[in-house]
## 1
Amino acid sequence: MPTLYNRIQGRSLERLAALSDGIFAVAMTLLVLDMHLPTAAQAHSEGELLSALASLGPQWITYGMSFLTLGIFWAGQQTQLSHIAEGTRDLAWIHLGFLFAVTLVPLSTRLLAEFITYRVAVGIYWLNILVLGAMLYWGWMHAARAGLIKDDTPREVQLSICRRILIAQLLYAAGAALCFVRTWLSIAVIVLVQLNYAVAPRLGRGRKSA
Amino acid sequence: MPTLYNRIQGRSLERLAALSDGIFAVAMTLLVLDMHLPTAAQAHSEGELLSALASLGPQWITYGMSFLTLGIFWAGQQTQLSHIAEGTRDLAWIHLGFLFAVTLVPLSTRLLAEFITYRVAVGIYWLNILVLGAMLYWGWMHAARAGLIKDDTPREVQLSICRRILIAQLLYAAGAALCFVRTWLSIAVIVLVQLNYAVAPRLGRGRKSA
Amino acid sequence: MPTLYNRIQGRSLERLAALSDGIFAVAMTLLVLDMHLPTAAQAHSEGELLSALASLGPQWITYGMSFLTLGIFWAGQQTQLSHIAEGTRDLAWIHLGFLFAVTLVPLSTRLLAEFITYRVAVGIYWLNILVLGAMLYWGWMHAARAGLIKDDTPREVQLSICRRILIAQLLYAAGAALCFVRTWLSIAVIVLVQLNYAVAPRLGRGRKSA
Amino acid sequence: MPTLYNRIQGRSLERLAALSDGIFAVAMTLLVLDMHLPTAAQAHSEGELLSALASLGPQWITYGMSFLTLGIFWAGQQTQLSHIAEGTRDLAWIHLGFLFAVTLVPLSTRLLAEFITYRVAVGIYWLNILVLGAMLYWGWMHAARAGLIKDDTPREVQLSICRRILIAQLLYAAGAALCFVRTWLSIAVIVLVQLNYAVAPRLGRGRKSA
């Protein structure tokens, strides 16, 4: 049985959502601001500027991928929280752990952009995604066990949230494993998996459940 | 028909609004912080400091313009969302795309401030504005088709939102095209169009509809 | 008479408040982060580190003052908005102008910290405070004229909000004028005026109205 | 008796909470972004990259500790505010002081990461935690004296909030004092105290009150 202070602490789901939105907003904006642009010293004509920008291509893919990562986990956390009736300090701390992993995304992105051909960089990026997924999964399991989920949430919704995380993580792990072939292949597969989750309804018309 | 998970995902308009306000707030503040100021090594008297600051003039115009850009699209997104009754994951992802374009504004601004006489820089800045407008337009079209718009929204309001985006984008495109004459002319026209939208009511007294 | 689009645009006070809180939060946090700290190369013993930190004293005063500035204007804007019944696009744009001045505070602070003995730097800092006050005053006048103020707001509250801005701006202007004697005197007076507003209730006990 | 303006100023608890969430979100995200990563010039093979990352270990502990610090005080402030019925300008300013201390956390963290073997750096970090605790304590005392606490808050909850701050600060002070033995010992004890507060329910099962 938790102590009195722990029973009253950190229960506001509204403040947890507001902190989360703030952290996602800062991470998403800083992510992109971190990109290196050509400087006046590096480009002296329209043509040089264009080709300097074009050479940033790989960077763009990395940063675009990270925005997708953050968008997917923002949507995922929001979906969970919308089915939770009340907060507890345990839930708040699991989500603080999740948010810590969110703040690491710009960092692992910067590492990947700097070392895009290194398996270590891909591995760390994947670890970041893995921790994000694991914390969300833990948060949902905890909410289920502690009876925090709204009464009107059908059981199939509960299962669908778990299944979604597990399948996505399997696909990410498969993608990351491809870095032993080529790191580029790895990144391409992860981006494709993410695009599938982002635009799914377009492709998914006709399917009935997932 | 979307899958079960996709039907329950990302539906909170409040969290979408909160994430948007956060991203706009970070982008607006970082935009300005990105400006270069003279350092103590560059100015050794009151006069030198004043002239060093005055020479930042072009930078100021660029950053002021981008604050206007962000303000206009913040107001535009807010207007749309205030007429939408419920969210869907599709709508959330269209707006995440819009927000990605928002995070690019400080970047294209920095590029323009660095290369203010280059057509490529003006072109990229204009592309950024175009994508912002296109995503907002898509979001509104999607909301209309998917029946998400509030029942009490008069049809003329719906049309007025579309028309506003189309006319503004035409004016921006015309302004951007002037970069083939002079990039400065281009920037001046875009700023004037934006000021018109920002202070419109002052100028617009007497007109009845738009 | 405003156009249809302008009648429906930017009316949400909640989103204006959320954007404002976001911008104030980013400005307040980045302000402080901008401070220079000694690096390992500059301090090689406990004593050297202490004296390196002590030599940052003037910087601390500048940044502390700016946090007070932001806190005062945040409280001031909040007080106004809490007495406004509904938003309009005009009000939104006046407050966007106010927020633009907020985003300039970290910039004018950095300038002042770099050029603390220059009247030009004090002058620009004061201009920033002046614009903040002027925009808030304009916002309140506009709300009064356009009939946006809540019906239950007593007339003396309306006057008190105007009077507060005018008196504060007079004191700031007097403080700034002292820069022609010594810039330090100027900064000291502005900080004292701000501290008076921040802790006023402590000193103000016994007075009845202001 | 406060002046009229001071009676109407800064009373919105919602805006105080929103500003707080924003500042915590920015501080938490920037904290981590401040970490130095190896650059392409520093690592030329998978092995070198791995060992360059491993050598960042001490940095990681510092930044992880600061995220815990921020998480603990965010949860603490939230707990207090959730038991307060109405805001006053005094309460707003006490919390602005608390938030100023929050914005200093990334700064004292950066100092500690740079000077991890210096007692001065540990001392300043501890001072930061002390001020955070002192402001929260002051805020709660003020709310109690001014009758702002919700009527349905049991007296034991009030006491539990005070006791929690006092005990935690005693433990932090004891940890900080160990810097006279070894700064690393100091940091280890502070991290352990924080982990205890973060995961307390896990360890605390069976205890009845605290």
## 2
Amino acid sequence: MSYKLFIPGPIAVSDKTYKAMATPIFGHRSKDFTALVEDCMPRLKQLFYTKDPVYLSTSSSWGIMEGAIRNVVNKRVLNCCNGSFSDKWFDVSKRCGKEADALTFEWGKPVDPEALDKALSSGKYDAVTIIHNETSTGTMSDISALMEVLRKYEDVISIVDTVSSFSALPIKKDELGIDVMVTGCQKALAIPPGLSFLAVSQRALDRSAKTEGRGYYFDFLEFQKNMEKSMTPSTPVIPLIFALRSKLDDIFEEGIENRYARHRANNKLVREWAYAKGIELFPEEKYGSVTLNCFKNNIGIDLPKLLDELKRRFKMVFDGGYGKLKGQTFRISNMGDETPETMGELLANIDAILPEFIK
Amino acid sequence: MSYKLFIPGPIAVSDKTYKAMATPIFGHRSKDFTALVEDCMPRLKQLFYTKDPVYLSTSSSWGIMEGAIRNVVNKRVLNCCNGSFSDKWFDVSKRCGKEADALTFEWGKPVDPEALDKALSSGKYDAVTIIHNETSTGTMSDISALMEVLRKYEDVISIVDTVSSFSALPIKKDELGIDVMVTGCQKALAIPPGLSFLAVSQRALDRSAKTEGRGYYFDFLEFQKNMEKSMTPSTPVIPLIFALRSKLDDIFEEGIENRYARHRANNKLVREWAYAKGIELFPEEKYGSVTLNCFKNNIGIDLPKLLDELKRRFKMVFDGGYGKLKGQTFRISNMGDETPETMGELLANIDAILPEFIK
């Protein structure tokens, strides 16, 4: 039973990547391991557009999203909330025992730079969290405008989640001035889940050094100490680092710019297919994500039944809406290795059965 | 460049396990995923000898070792320290902002039940950490005797690390009364690193509910809430759960008792080989680990050179001593899928070159 995944992560993984994962492992304190890390690192930094160190965390992205809170929040964090995952980050901040406020926007709206500026001008905050691409609603905030605001506040550390946008479009960490940029492997990188990445500025490392109770597993300074030797603090998920190396080969063979263009083209293809049926985008079009489309279910599709049949008959899966939007929206991912042909195949398969499932 | 690993983790992984890891992934909120978890869980619980829930954590073992501290320590933790990893657990406890004391024993000595009893009788502690098998020194403490002491202290939560002993000998969680039993996948389970397991008692869950600042990623109550639906709080490392299922098949096909006997036999084989050369065990023999032998380098082996040559000529690797014991000790693992034949091959290869490397 194997299905092609068009859900917004984890997504379809190539046979080549699976094969790379079966590379025989070695000890994580060996020269073989440091050579593997050193093989990945320059190209990984290039995808982050950074000269800062990039750390490898054996965890899902939530691990380092929590870790970032524990490392940099001394005073009070402002969590920008415009969807399920960003709302949850606010909850996680409080669970870490930190003082936190939510800057809330309606689901489907982006984070608003003016509102951010106003909130920060209170002087109450020493850290901000932003999710660049809110996967739950397919909403992509304008990170350039938001970072323009953040660069005015010298004492505020910016933590930006690029989990579901990284490597699908350029997010230029150093140029934008992002302090802590977090991502995962199971979205546009098309690696099975279990490895996450964070690039950390010197400012954020300095803050970390002054922050109590940050623990060990996600401690920035431990990551840094080990990365200076091309190592990780604890035993890492080595098969996924092999997968990363293989995927970096793929990405740079294709060309980064070509990869970005392919994501845009695939995204547009799906959006136009939907528009032709009168299906509306859930977020405002300008803020629609490049890696997935979240559509309103405004034509009365019986989503659970359609999804069952698509899976049974065509072995393909997309998503029937996240959290409180379940049934009211559906999401089609175009991340990773997809092409206009594979996206077209999905859409043709949906077309073949859709009329049966309009209520 | 592929080497057979006889280091104390990560260890050699079978082709069958690598193949299982390449099973096409599915969404972690799908019925396919819950079916996978439900397929593993009864057998995993059997290996823990527990009726308590067992949680799957996408992290190395250090993640949940830190997590356990954050979940159950309200008052003060007593960290039993008799080697590099247990010493580090004391350090990690303090880094979590917890009050902590070390109960220290010489490296190579086991944790002493009488000393533990005396320390606990102070009434200062609400949690204790013990590493059953100190991998750094190859020392296995008497967990039955230690748990006999701990069972007297109703308010003290016991956290036992069985990372490098689990599944190589019976550690009967419920019968012993261990509250939080922690292990990893990359030792005797012979799975590549990146997945860890913890079985948690109701008492420990109750304590967790009263503990502030435990966060999200390693929160026992989040693990519990999700495991009630056979899920995990965050996107899990699915390929390693496929590997787990495959490995459980192997283990129960072999028979648990046969597996234990095989580990004992392999361990004895290596120990007797060393004794015949006048090489001494680092810990007192009675407390020598069943999963690895840590030997004194008392016959003057040039370990770095021997290890290089063994790797170059025979594509095999063992360990040249951990931390402050580097060069003074060496460690040969017999965990996982090894047989008297494969262990014999390693020893014959060492014998073939050893005379060249005695100083």
